[in-house]
Amino acid sequence: MKYISVLLTVVSAAVMFWFGSRSYISSHAYAYDVARQVSLMNVEDLTKMHLKAWMETLSFGLYHDETKEKLAALAEHARSAKSDTFEAMYIALAAAFATLACALFVSRRFFVVVGSIVSLALLTAGIFAPIMMMTIHKEVPYLGDVVLSFESKSVTGSIRSLYEHGEMILAVLIALFSVVIPVLKNLGFLFVAIFYRAPFAAAIVRFFAHLGKWSMADVFVVATFLVYLAGNNKTGRAEIEVGLYFFLAYVLVSMTVSLIADRLLHRCVK
């Protein structure tokens, strides 16, 4: 039974990494396509598009608006990329939790090792994949929906943006508590699971248990949802991207690994 569980764990992990990487690549392709669409939806380009539409009408179809056709092609490609992104994400997340379920049938130690690796993979996708798209637009008479501003941000992109705008302290704090500490925490659990009989293993678990209280991972997820809810109004629209789902999955997996690691070393803590 244990050999079968180990085999299923490896297969599920491989599926998670494969579809996770596909989701990551597709998410950036989607963001790129939307950015190209938005670049054609400013006042100047929309004015030209409407003039060309009149020319197309007056020429009885002899003149074709290439910009309009390009915009339609970009929109179709963006829809396809978004569909691929979320389909791959759902499969990757399902495979991640299936990996943990299979590992649990082997041993707690094996579960902590596998869970730490899965957690690090989810965290990597969560901080590098886009987490949200923010669009500021306005309805202009005769032109339609004009996009005034567009941003697609990841966690690392947000940190870099804060740094470039002089918000050094805030950038460092977010990088520390939402990237550095989570990475060190999972590496610590991985190290503990391998050397769980070492005398310092229990101290590592206690250290990260206390340090985890200061982690901003869960706060970051809640804050992002609040920004999403506040960003949907008449002039702005916020669209949650796959990075946030990967980050949320990381929080859940990391909490579970922490609990199992604590039980694994319960006697050492005593």
Structure in words:
By secondary structure, the chain is mostly helical. It has one domain. Strands 2-1-3 form a three-stranded antiparallel beta sheet. Helix 1 runs antiparallel to helix 3, helix 4 runs antiparallel to helix 9 and helix 8 runs antiparallel to helix 9. The longest helix has 39 residues. It is flat and about 70 Å long. The two termini are 32 Å apart. The model has no long low-confidence stretch (mean pLDDT 76).
Keywords, please?
single chain; 10 helices; three-stranded antiparallel beta sheet; mainly alpha; 270 residues
Quick synopsis:
The protein has 270 residues and is mainly alpha-helical. The protein has one domain (2-269). The chain contains ten helices and three strands.
The total strand number stands at: 3
Largest sheet: 3 strands, antiparallel
Secondary structural class: mainly alpha
Mean pLDDT: 76
* Element pattern in H and E: HHHHEEHHHHEHH
Percent of sequence in beta strands: 5-15%
What is the rounded distance between the termini? 32 Å
Number of domains: 1
Low-confidence stretches: none
Gyration radius, in Å: 24 Å
Strands in their spatial order, largest beta sheet: 2-1-3
Layout: helices, strands, pairs:
Blueprint: H1 2-39, H2 43-58, H3 66-104, H4 108-128, E1 132-140, E2 144-153, H5 155-164, H6 168-194, H7 201-211, H8 217-231, E3 236-240, H9 242-264, H10 266-269
Antiparallel strand pairs: 1-2, 1-3
Helix pairs in contact: 1-3, 1-4, 3-4, 3-9, 4-6, 4-9, 5-6, 6-7, 6-9, 8-9
